[in-house]
Amino acid sequence: MSQLSGTDFVTDIYPNLSEEERVRVDLAAAYHLIEHFQMSDSIYTHISARVPGDNEYFLINPYGTRFSEVKASQLVTIDLDGKIIDDPCQMGANPAGFTIHSAIHAARHDLKCALHTHTVAGVSIASTQTGILPINQWSLQFYHGVSRHAYEGIALNLEERERLVNDLGSENKIMILDNHGLMTMGENVGEAFTLMFNLERVCKVQMSVLASGQAVNQIDSSVCDLTYQQYKQFAEMSLRDGFHVEWLAYLRLLEKVSPSYKE
């Protein structure tokens, strides 16, 4: 087995690509990973990424594609007013996806990617009043910084955007859409995906614990705060050449199971 080099792998994944092309590759990868880890919902839910540059554009999947069909070159470019800038497949964009993602990209320029899911575990937690409970190490990554947005029906009313971003706030990157699903956001696609991967596990564990009927072993609030800060420190320590090592590991997985995302 050849020696694994993070730098060499980055070069292989992003060979002489422009900044926008890199974003496209990462976004398509996130779609394939959501499918691989069984977090998709048929052709529904959506992931978007801001197009680098001065224009207020973002990328999203062609409406009607399964996540495993998404390719970097076929992503839809759309502006914040809903105007399609580029649509190689002539399939348009999910109207509810536009409402939710245009709200995020218009209000939070620090966030380059937004990811939304409807999973059994995620919708289950979104349907409870308690939200995420601090009952294990995984859940403490989300001890702070989680917003909630009240359910208003399918997100087709553009007036909901203002309320959604007000509920998200100016700093949080995780939001529970009440009675609906989950959202994570990141300074890049890799951060948004890894947050969702971890959040999904937390929801699964919580539902399993509650279903067991056993008494929950409580964690002292000071330890909860400590562990939350440790998660933030680990995220900073885990960067290699600007990429998080966990994201690079996921890309190496895709090279084996679904390499078409780069096309």
Could you give the count of β-strands? 10
SSE order: HHEEEEHEHEHEEHHEEH
Question: Can you tell me the CATH class?
Answer: Alpha Beta
Mean pLDDT: 93
In the predicted model, the low-confidence regions spanning at least 5 consecutive residues are: none
- How do the strands line up in the largest sheet? 4-3-2-1-5-8-7-6
The CATH architecture assignment turns out to be: 3-Layer(aba) Sandwich
Could you say which structural class the secondary elements and strand pairing correspond to? alpha+beta
Secondary structure tally, helices: 8
Strand content: 5-15%
- Biggest β-sheet: count, sense, barrel? 8 strands, mixed
Within CATH, the superfamily carries the name Class II aldolase/adducin N-terminal domain
What share of residues is helical? Answer: 40-55%
Radius of gyration: 18 Å
User: What is the name of the CATH topology?
Assistant: L-fuculose-1-phosphate Aldolase
Pfam family, one: Aldolase_II
InterPro entries: Aldolase-II_Adducin_sf, Aldolase_II/adducin_N, Aldolase_II/adducin_N_sf
Protein name: Class II aldolase/adducin family protein
Family: Belongs to the aldolase class II family.
Task: Write up this protein.
The protein is an alpha+beta fold and 263 residues long. The chain has eight helices and ten strands. Helix 1 (6-13) packs across helix 8, helix 2 runs parallel beside helix 6 and helix 4 (120-126) crosses helix 6 (189-212). The longest helix has 24 residues, at 189-212. The chain is globular, with a radius of gyration of 18 Å.
Topology overview:
Layout: H1 6-13, H2 19-36, E1 46-50, E2 57-60, E3 76-79, E4 84-86, H3 95-107, E5 113-117, H4 120-126, E6 146-149, H5 160-168, E7 174-177, E8 181-186, H6 189-212, H7 221-237, E9 239-240, E10 243-244, H8 245-257
Parallel strand pairs: 6-7
Antiparallel strand pairs: 1-2, 1-5, 2-3, 3-4, 5-8, 7-8, 9-10
Helix pairs in contact: 1-8, 2-6, 2-8, 3-5, 4-6
